[in-house]
């Protein structure tokens, strides 16, 4: 897969980051789940869930798909929340800065067409509930990316496993001088971890 040049630079940077030991332990159940699916020769379905499906779960779905493509892992990625809002504009801006090409249609809750290479590959991103018709109804891993959703959704119907992989919300830096750098920092952390996960499978 020939990723866009800027995105390839971001991937190289993400893979150079050091993942702390406690985070490696956090990621272990996800790696084991993917290894199990690989041994069974079936596609792994990963649904990344956060309250508003606007920041961390969007980053996670997108980077997990890129990482799966890069390392040839048979996985499909999804995302959802417990409330419908919109994919945050700061999330979109960060993805563009890091090398994705994006177009959008719709107004209140736009659907973004996200491309990472020159072929037909594309990710559709928009805010939706975790049980949206676009997402799997059973046989998937529910990967909780924020503590609020993890605490307030103790049961995800149809999930065969629930894996907390929690991230700090960059929303705390909205409308500050650090906004762009903190969104990029969180996106890179998620990229680093999803690349590690897929590389380890």
Overview of the structural elements:
- This protein is α/β, with parallel strands linked by helices.
- It has one domain (5-200): 3-Layer(aba) Sandwich (Rossmann fold), CATH 3.40.50.
- It contains six helices and seven strands; from the N terminus they run H-H-E-H-E-H-E-E-E-E-H-E-H.
- It has helices at residues 5-16, 21-39, 56-71, 89-97, 147-152, 179-200, and strands at residues 44-49, 75-80, 101-105, 111-115, 123-125, 140-144, 159-164.
- The protein has a four-stranded parallel β-sheet with strand order 2-1-6-7. A three-stranded antiparallel β-sheet has the order 3-4-5, with helices on one face.
- It is globular, with a radius of gyration of 16 Å.
- The model has no long low-confidence stretch (mean pLDDT 96).
- This is Protein-tyrosine-phosphatase.
What pattern of helices and strands is seen along the backbone? HHEHEHEEEEHEH
CATH architecture level-2 label: 3-Layer(aba) Sandwich
Uncertain regions: pLDDT < 50 for 5+ in a row?
none
Looking across the biggest beta sheet, what order are the strands in? 2-1-6-7
Largest sheet: 4 strands, parallel
Task: Tell me the number of structural domains.
Answer: 1
Mean pLDDT: 96
Briefly note the structural class of the backbone.
alpha/beta
Terminal Cα separation, in Å?
18 Å
